[in-house]
Design brief:
With 137 residues, this protein is of the alpha/beta class. It has a single domain (5-125), classed as CobE/GbiG C-terminal domain (Nucleotidyltransferase, domain 5, 2-Layer Sandwich), CATH 3.30.420.180. Helices cover 36% and strands 26% of the residues. The chain contains 5 helices and 5 strands. The chain has helices at residues 18-32, 52-61, 70-77, 85-91, 96-105; strands at 5-12, 39-45, 65-68, 110-118, 121-128. It has a 5-stranded mixed β-sheet. The longest helix has 15 residues, at 18-32. The two termini are 12 Å apart.
Amino acid sequence: MGEAVIVAGVGCRKGTAAREIAAAVAAALERSGIAAGELALIATSERKGGEPGIAAAARAIGVPLVLVAQSDLEAAGARGATVSARVMAVAGVASVAEAAALAAGGAGARLIAPRIAVGPATCALAQRDAAPKGAGR
């Protein structure tokens, strides 16, 4: 292994187009100085799983889409940096993008780019450092 895993957490308004989701992901990667090829997956809440724009953006970018259970979002959300009262009221977490990135990254994940908004979409990046070579053997 030896390489870190980069996860893009995504949130959006209902009906957001794939190009708008992809633009938010691209902006977060650019702001963080991370090449698009380093992205391992896109994550969002199970509630957003029916949003065709998110799934289409993940396909267009060429990474898997992971849907995160509400309980996992809530557990990871406490590690986030952004607090949106509107999102908290609607989604039960302060930032869907941050909570999804952290939850999908796992217990050892850390936020490397807090949520940014690009039009109707948000994206946050988390990183899980890979185990050193030979670890766990």
